[in-house]
Amino acid sequence: MPRIKITVAYIGTRYVGWQLQPPREEHPQPTVQGELEKVLTAVTGTLIRVHGSGRTDSGVHADAQVAHFDLPEKWKNVNWQKVFTTKLPHDIAVTSVETVDDEFHSRFSAKAKSYTYTLWLKNEFVLPARYPFVWKTGPLDIAAMEKAASYLIGEHDFATYQNAGTEITNTVRTITKIAHNCPDYATRDTLPDELVWTVEAHGFLKQMVRNIMGTLVACGRHKISPDSVPDLLAAKERSAAPATAPARGLSMHKVSY
């Protein structure tokens, strides 16, 4: 059976996440995986499971989620790019389709992933077109956020930044990059409206990026000191750190293989 790799972009606002969920009160909960599988089933007449590189949560977006599925031989020559473009809802787009080796796995073959998180630094308003994609925080002390972020780079036990809901025993992860899009902010008279942070790691825990952003924003608001971050990591308790950042600011940005 041919294995197909796809790259998927989506607005997560009206979905309960990537992964299929059990129905509630006989009503299915919309998921991105479910919409993709619905298209494949409609065309092939059989259930084809789609495997994603990661399970984005309810309300989280993606610029380049990667997934794969195995097709019956007779369907391999279908123009799946055209099929997905025609049949998917407007808030999901398959941006690339390619046949890959059977050993490729969208999740287990990934070497690194990166997410972006977008903050809105104005107090007065949020542009309506940007509202679903930003967390309105108002002005922040970016230098304090940078100092806090420096403590998180490298290999650490990130148990403090893992939300409940996954059965794993190893909470050690390696963050290779935490950076933002405004390197010259210190020389500007005003800050940009949007501050976009990128977090790259070999792997992430459940809601790890949103929890990290909650801490960075708390530092940017002078609610906690950047120098408290090592103690937060050492606590290994979710309750030790500030609240989780909203889902709408987060987007899966890139998966590297």
UniProtKB/TrEMBL annotation:
Residues 8-108, 148-257 form the Pseudouridine synthase I TruA alpha/beta domain. CDD domains: PseudoU_synth_EcTruA. It catalyses: uridine(38/39/40) in tRNA = pseudouridine(38/39/40) in tRNA. Pfam families: PseudoU_synth_1. One of its GO terms (molecular function) is RNA binding. The active site is at D57. Substrate binds at Y115. This is tRNA pseudouridine synthase A. It comes from Halodesulfovibrio spirochaetisodalis. The gene is truA.
